[in-house]
Amino acid sequence: xxxxxxxxxxxxxxxxxxxxxxxxxxxxxxxxxxxxxxxxxxxxxxxxxxxxxxxxxxxxxxxxxxxxxxxxxxxxxxxxxxxxxxxxxxxxxxxxxxxxxxxxxxxxxxxxxxxxxxxxxxxxxxxxxxxx
Length: 132
Hints:
This protein has one domain: Hypothetical protein apc22750. Chain B (Translation Initiation Factor IF3). Helix content is 28%, strand content 32%. It has two helices and six strands; from the N terminus they run H-E-E-E-E-H-E-E. It has helices at residues 2-16, 83-104, and strands at residues 31-33, 36-40, 43-47, 60-70, 108-115, 121-130. Strands 1-5-6-4 form a four-stranded mixed sheet. A two-stranded antiparallel ribbon has the order 2-3.
C-alpha cells in the first residue's frame, strides 16, 4: 500500500514539472504588444517592435505583471535545453503573464523584458493596461 502511494505521488511530482501553464478563458483576449519574445541559445529575449509602440492616451495603467514558466526538475541536461523546450517555456510564461493581466482587469500588456535566468526557466514582464 505504501509503495503504491509513493509511486503515485512520485509520478504526479515528476509529470507536473513538464506541463505548460494553460491560458484561462478570460486571458485569451489579452493582447501582447511592444515586441516579440523569441528563443535564443539557453535563453529567451525580447526583440523590440519594428515600429515604436505605446499605449493610447485613453488606456489606464493597472500595474506591472510578470509571467514565469520553469522546469521543476532540470534533469541531466545541465541547463542545456533544445530550442523546442525554450519555446515551450516561452508559451507557458506568456500564458502566465496573460492570466495575471486578466486577473488585474487588463486587456493589453506592453512587454518590457524577457529572460531565462538559469537556462531552465523563462520570465516575461510588462505593463498591464485597460484600454477601451
